[in-house]
Structures are given as C-alpha cells and as structure tokens.
TrEMBL record:
It holds the Pfam family TatD_DNase. PANTHER family: DEOXYRIBONUCLEASE TATDN1 (PTHR10060:SF15), TATD FAMILY DEOXYRIBONUCLEASE (PTHR10060). Keywords: Hydrolase, Metal-binding, Nuclease. A divalent metal cation 1 binds at E135, D251. One of its GO terms (molecular function) is metal ion binding. It comes from the Eukaryota. A divalent metal cation 2 binds at H171, H200. This is TatD related DNase.
Amino acid sequence: MGEWQRCSPCQRTLCSAVDDADSEHVFHAVNSPPPSVPELSDLFDFDCNLTHADLASDVDTLMRAAAAVGVTQMLVPGATLQESTEAIELCRQHPTTLFPTAGVHPYNAHATPFDAELEQLRSMAALDEVRAVGECGLDYSPGFPPPPGQKAWFAIQLDLACALRKPLFLHERLAHADFMALIHECKRKHDGYFPPAVVHCFTGNEAELQEYLRHDFYIGVTGFVCKKDRGAELREIVRHVPLDKLVIETDAPYMGFPKCRQAETSNRKKQSPNVPSALPLVVHAIAQAVGRSPVEIAHATTANARRFLRI
C-alpha cells in the first residue's frame, strides 16, 4: 500500500480528493479570494509533511508560496525512523522556519520494535532540535497493522516522551478507548506525570474532545473544517475547543479540499496533493465557525504552537 494510505481513514474518508458533488458544496469560506498577507502575516502550520514524496522535491517553492500568504513556520513530523531522519536534516537547513519531530506513525507500527530501532528513535528524540515525540498513536482503520504492534510502539513512545520531558504529537483514529488506556497506564508508571500533548488532525466526536481537554491536550484542526457537508460536525465541535488549546495544520500533502491550492499560480484547481499555502483558508473557516476574526485565530494558534514546541 502506498503512502497515501498511511493516514486512513483520512485517506479514504477525509483527506482523499473529494468527488465533484462535494466540490460543489464546499464551505463558502474557501470560495473567497486568497487571504491577504497584511491580514494574516504570522501563521504556524502545525503539521506539514515536507518529507513526503509528493512534496520533498519542491520544498523551496512550497515554502515561498506559503510565506507569500503569511505562513512563516511549520512543524515537520516524522512517521518512520527514516522520515524522522529526513525531517531533522531538512529542518537543519531552515532552523528558524521548520521544526522536526521524531516518531513512528501507527501505519508503520507493524511489529514489536527491535532494540536497534528503539535506540535510533531515542537518539533522535533526545536531540535539542527535535521538538516532540511522534507522530505516534493508534489507528484501527482498515489496512493498518494489527493492534498489538501499534500498542507496543505507542507505549514505548509515550514512555520515551515522559523520560525526555518532551511533548507528544499524537494520532488517533477509531481507537479512542485503547488510546486513552495506554495514556492512563503511562501516567501511572510515571507517578502522574505526562508531557504536553496534541491530538493532531482531530476528527472525533464531542465526548472524545472533552476527554482530551480534561487531560489538557491541544487539538489540531485541518482543512477538513472547510468542507460544507462532511466538515459540518467538525465546525460545530471546534466551537468547544478553548482558543488557547487550538492549533491549525494543513497535514499536507494529505487532507486536501476544494480550492486548497488557490494561492498557487498554477494547478489552482487541484485538491491533491494539499499544500501549506492552504493554511489561511483553514484559519478563515475556523474563524467563521467560532465567530471570531481570522486575525484573532491566527495570533492565538501561532502563540499556542510556539508555546507547545518551546520556540
């Protein structure tokens, strides 16, 4: 299975190119002209997979296009040991703009890790420049590895983050009960301590949201909020996210939505791969959903991202 399946069901039900019918009914916030740079001038994309094959060959162009619409900094997550290495190397070339994480995504958690793999992950995660452990978590979507391997990798990464006192970049899909059970077990093992954590690409229900907020987790929201029909529930739920716990992300090249590439000079009608210059559209959609100004959303989410990552 290809990389596009890694984010399932983001790939199957959320982040794949939507059909023509959905394109006709996209949330109207994305039908307006691209937001101006003076209005939104300091955005932080909290998840941009610049090491992905669909983006890696064009990073400089993507960064320039993003900067032109106000995206000034990005988090570049690691989903495998190799991708974590690549993220670190890429971010070293742009040390004030790009910031890496190191981890193993549940899609890649096929079996209990070998000692050599654990040592490699520990070495990377311990680097000062690595801002968080992850992307890690559980995903019980069809096509993902069996739960035992996922749980083993997740538990190890939870313990690693606690040992290093580093934040966690978390992924959860269709696995909420097991996800929280492992978090509770980790807290018990570490005498109640648990590092700051963000549940990225949130698409859960309100009960799950409230449980995350009780644990003081941050919540990441993507361009799925821009879709009129399929994003309606998320737009309602995002109203219940405290502004000081909200971060915004494109999750590029995943999570494409109609007109996500309208800031580009070419390929403006394409929905995939998603690109970091789509982030202002996410800001505008959230602002409309929660009844705040885009500038307020931009300022708050950027401050939250920097506080979480200790930038």
